[in-house]
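ok so I'm stuck.
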Amino acid sequence: MKKLMFIILFLATVGVKAQTLGSITVGGDFDKFYPTVWTDGGWNNMMPSQLEIGRSAVHENSDWRGSIMAKFTYHTTRAGNGASFIDADIVQSHNVLSVQDLDFVAGWKDATGINASFDVVIWLRGGGTTYYYKSLYATTCRVFDGVANPLPFQEVSGPAITFKTSKDVYVNSFGLTKSGTANFLNGGTNYFAGNIGIGTQDTRGYKLAVSGNMIAESVKVQLRSAWPDYVFTKDYTLPSLKETEKHIKEKGHLPGIPSASEVKVNGIDLGEMNAKLLEKIEELTLHLIQKDKLIENLKTSNQQIENKQLALQLSLEALLNRLNKLENQKN
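replied:
not stuck anymore, here's the structure
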């Protein structure tokens, strides 16, 4: 009896967690990505499903068609249940002698938001492309490519889902895409070899690109160019204010400072702009020093003129007094 119970429990366990191996071929056009609908086999086991999709041989189906290794871990919401997510780890390439990359996965979706199905949609490239898969729990796959099944795929109580012509922005073709946030609790150094985009995927070749506002307690810019103390050297030619005025009238901005249209297109380099602004401040300081000396000289000259005027006034008053005395003596 105990042996029979053990066998029943063993078979039940195997039935609950039965790996699924197989392959699918997505027809249609090679330049389109078609919805393939997979079931969340781990849901009733209270566990996330794990689905691996791959094609190791770059020449599978045709020369240089490409290869992909992808792992999806997911748990569907099924009309509002919690802890739902879809995480993906993808490396995909169409490697024509290291010349070109081509995506095979264009996106994914939990298709159970307002229904009790187990459907997860993954868009895969068509054109007769074969994919091999392994699922930790039993799963089925329905391909909606206009060949195996007609388009569109009708989500239960939801929208009609059709093909894509390009991958969605959240798809990382060379690594992880996580539904949640990431916390790194170790106090050590986190190293990123490539470029980092925050709020944008176009880093324009910079190590860090941020689309949006930033806040920091301190920002240090290590300049590679010279700091503009050269303005204070004896051989520096200080532009005259007349030259600056002429440039402003003709160009509409300070000499050496980019125009508003240039900044709109190219942005500004923080370190370089601070150096340029300091150069202008130092030039302005020299002009102010010159003007201050001129003002002091004018003050001195004015004081000298005032002293001379006072002396002349006193002399004139003395002469007037003498004339008055002479007039009085005659009378």
